[in-house]
Amino acid sequence: MTTAASLGLASCHTCSLVSRAPAADGALCPRCGSQVHFRKPGSLGRTWAFLIAAMILYVPANTLPMMATSSLFGSSDDTIISGVIFLWEDGSWYLALIVFVASILVPIAKMLALLVLLGSVQLGVTWSADRQVRLARLYRAIESIGRWSMLDIYVVALLATVVQLTALASVHAGPAAVAFGAVVVLTMLATESFDPRLIWDHPVAERANERRAAA
């Protein structure tokens, strides 16, 4: 398969101009002057770092209280799961489903998708052209849904703003809100750090061809 890199063409990460870049490092974009690379330097390392940090913080984000509520009748601490269960038992199954998908399924799906992308590139798996297209679409999908994982943070912020207007109750964000916000930001950084052009490289196929040629 012919790629832009094999033709000596590179895209600028700043202005997206496609130009013919020299093989030597330090080539500059002719339009904006930014440094041009065929592949993002250190892409896999940064992506792994952000992803591992997000996976670690995902545990306290789901086990620590997301929201602390206090009123004349007592106080309670709610995690994401307990909030989903409360909404379901209260009859608001549609809200429970939205929160469950946006706050639990989407982050897990993003991290699993990034693991698939990183694993396939890191291990040098040779995919067919159709599967490479599917991987590229998977990357575009997780890139577009990243910011919608902040639903819980939005809900807590709105509840805290509305409830604080009364003297009967108060709502405060719990420690899980910070961890969950960090998870969302880290997964977005991991997605941004990953270079999707690596999907189209074939290191295993190239090494196999070299061995056959040497034999």
Which keywords apply here?
elongated, 3-stranded antiparallel beta sheet, 215 residues, two-stranded antiparallel ribbon, 7 helices, mainly alpha, disordered C terminus, 10% strand
Question: Can you describe this structure?
Answer:
- By secondary structure, the chain is mainly α.
- Helices cover 57% and strands 10% of the residues.
- β3 and β4 form a beta hairpin.
- Supply the number of helical segments: 7
Helices and strands, in order, run as EEHEEHHHHEHH
Strand-pairing-aware structural class: mainly alpha
As a percent range, the share of strand residues is 5-15%
Strand order of the largest sheet: 4-3-5
Work out the number of β strands: 5
Residues in helices, as a percent range = 55-70%
How many strands, what sense, and barrel or not for the largest sheet?
A: 3 strands, antiparallel
Average of per-residue pLDDT values: 76
Radius of gyration equals 23 Å
Uncertain spans: 203-215
Oligomer: single chain
Question: Termini distance?
Answer: 24 Å
What is this entry, summarized?
With 215 residues, the protein is mainly α. The chain has helices at 43-63, 80-89, 93-122, 129-145, 151-163, 175-193, 203-214, and strands at 9-11, 18-20, 67-71, 74-78, 169-173.
